[in-house]
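Dear colleague,

Thank you for sharing your sequence with our group. We've completed the structure prediction you requested, and as agreed, I am returning the results in plain text so they can be pasted directly into your records. Please verify that the sequence below matches your submission; if there's any discrepancy, let me know and we will rerun it promptly.
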Amino acid sequence: MALGPKDFSASVGAAPEFDLLLTPNLSVLFAARVAGLLPQGFIGSIGESSDTHKLRETAAHSRLLGFAGALAFHPTQVAIFIEAFSPSAQELGWVRDVIAAENNAAARGLSAFSLDGKMVDPPVVRRIHETLALAGSN
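Please find the predicted structure tokens below.
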């Protein structure tokens, strides 16, 4: 599920800028998550393919907001989106550590535990498993 940023912007008579697109994109993200769909999103317009630095930054920010990918219209965008929406080696290391600690905690009857000074509870574990699934799909 995704929002067409230029379509939406045109429908309200505005430019496809971050301030305008944040709320409707987050609405799509929430609706997709509730429906069990992967939210595709990019808080901006994908129509500009020449500024790869801005594209990479915006895609990374969109991932932090909870989007799982973005629609691309130009071949140069594909590699950028794969990189931006894929877990880094550091993230995958954290995922492995959490899964090992989760197994240890579960064996002791715990659903929440501390790892490297951070609380890990069921919502964090759910996000960890989503990260692992995302790594497998990219």
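Summary note from our side: The chain has a mean pLDDT of 91.

Kind regards,
the structure core
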